[in-house]
Specification:
395 residues; mainly alpha; 2 domains; antiporter activity; NhaC_Na-H+_Antiporter; transport; antiport
Length: 395
């Protein structure tokens, strides 16, 4: 019996010696070089680039003595960690499509644009972009749609473009960062082994003070602007188009209110999003007069309508399950890449290096910021940094 125990111990010892530190570093350098070349030089699809880089890491690992079974087990474990995050992303796409066709998001746009007198224009623009990012989970989408409209309104009010652009960017980024519908907000906690609500709460300590300071500055800056013409043709056309395209009933605010309340009451995310989807479907049929076929189409492919104004179309024609599939594919690639690095002990080497120098919470946070900054700058794909840094620093 003792002989078998000693033999088992020898097997485990040999297992741990398969990948040396030097080999792990080689896997990291080569796989990252391949990833950088594909993404930065060839401009290849990030999901495909991650999968190909994962194959390089797996191939090198097998040459160095790892077995496919080890990679298979680690890939399975990583997918288990990320699967719920992928499901949430798919639900988010469906939810946004439902909120668009029900008129919920268009109503928020309409109310926001109506509350734009010159003295509080910058303040209101920041809040409006913040709300839209919170409701849609996309800062770029917010800046590229309603942000463009606000720039035109700002010019009509004789407000410097730089001021307006700053308010738009601050609001959009803040809303995206704290939105439970944002892909970054969803994936960061899942790859790091924490809860999405705890993740959002932890960000409040840094983001809320920054937003508060910005809003105070926008109020002060806005006091110097009293002229200009808010009744510009494009501004009025947006409002008229929204009025003609949707029944803008205040009851349309019910889905986001219910979802946000339930989320911050720490109810399970997927059922909460399901409630938000069902409520929006009911409102789309009852308030907007949409057929069930139209509603189901919006859930699958997003809102698809022509209002007669291209800018409004770009604001509301979004969402749907298919809109999230590229992000899901990116997560799958990131999971494979992360698994390849995990099996070849790259994470252990990086963690040993970090723990050697990180002696407390602040130094650990500093390492996290630096790693994210370097990897995001090199690859241009933030989910790559999640797939590498998240598992390294996970509790």
């Amino acid at each position: 019996m003792r002989r078998y125990e000693e033999k088992g111990a020898d097997v485990m010892e040999n297992e741990n010696k398969k990948i040396t530190t030097g080999k792990s570093v080689a896997v990291l350098i080569v796989s990252l070089a391949v990833l950088l070349y594909l993404v930065a030089v060839l401009k290849a699809n990030p999901g495909v680039s991650l999968i190909l880089s994962a194959l390089v890491a797996i191939g090198m690992g097998m040459l160095f003595g790892c077995t496919w079974k080890e990679f298979e087990n680690d890939i399975g474990d990583t997918f288990k960690t990320m699967f719920l995050g992928m499901l949430i992303m798919m639900f988010v796409g469906i939810l946004i499509g439902a909120w668009m066709i029900s008129g919920t998001v268009p109503l928020l746009m309409y109310y926001g644009l109506k509350l734009l007198p010159a003295p509080i224009f910058l303040f209101a623009s920041c809040i409006l972009c913040c709300l839209m990012s919170l409701m849609t989970g996309t800062s770029w989408g917010t800046m590229g749609t309603i942000g463009v409209a606000l720039l035109g309104v700002g010019e009509g009010l004789v407000i410097p473009v730089a001021y307006t652009a700053g308010a738009i960017v601050v609001g959009a980024i803040f809303g995206d960062k704290l939105s439970p519908l944002s892909d970054t907000t969803i994936m960061a906690p899942y790859v790091s082994g924490t809860d999405i609500i705890e993740h959002i709460k932890s960000m409040l300590f840094t983001t809320v003070p920054c937003l508060a300071i910005s809003l105070i500055l926008y109020i002060i800056l806005g006091m110097q602007f009293h002229g200009g013409n808010i009744d510009s043709e494009s501004y009025q056309q947006i409002l008229i188009t929204l009025e003609n395209s949707f029944n803008l009933n205040p009851i349309l605010l019910l889905p986001p209110v219910v979802v946000l309340v339930l989320i911050f009451l720490r109810k399970p995310t997927l059922p909460v999003f399901g409630i938000g989807i069902v409520l929006a479907m009911i409102l789309a049929v009852a308030v907007q007069g949409r057929s069930l076929t139209e509603v189901l189409s919006a859930l699958a492919s997003g809102m698809q309508t022509s209002t007669g104004m291209d800018l409004v179309d770009s604001m509301i024609n979004r969402g749907g399950l298919t809109s999230m599939m590229s992000s899901v594919a990116l997560i799958i690639g990131a999971a494979m890449f992360s698994s390849g690095l995990k099996t070849t002990k790259v994470f252990e080497v990086l963690l040993d290096t970090i723990t050697r120098y990180a002696k407390g919470r602040r130094s650990l946070l500093a390492f996290s910021y630096i790693l994210h900054l370097v990897l995001a700058s090199l690859t241009g794909v933030y989910l790559v940094t999640f797939s590498i840094v998240g598992p390294i620093l996970a509790p």
